[in-house]
Amino acid sequence: MYHISLMSAAGQQLAESMGIPDAAIGAVLGYCVVFVGLILLMCVVAVMGRIMAASRAKKAAPKAAAPAPDSGAPVRKGPPAPGSAGEIKLYDVPDKEAAMIMAIVADKMGKPLNELRFKSIKEVK
Q1: pTM value?
Q2: Per residue in 15-28, pLDDT tens?
Q3: On the CB side of 22, how many CA atoms lie within 13 Å of its CA?
């Protein structure tokens, strides 16, 4: 019967002279190396995920920046008029009637029209 050994002479001598405490320390250090490697790999994957999410958000931002026009509200371009508080959405209400409604509300509240902010006016049917 033949005995085949894959260890070198120095490896055999080391294995024979190693006790249980030395083997335990070697095993613990081996586990530590594996877990540190896994933690580093996890960090690399997390960083790459954040980079990919940021690039997707950058690509999606121009599409989301262009607001879709509402079905009943006209789309107006250009800066708002001086003294105005921004845009107003009108739903099935002519401009003249919207102006009268805003003037009546401002009069009833006792405030100037340019201090009020109207977001939308919709006719209730």
Answers
A1: 0.38
A2: 677 788 988 999 99
A3: 6
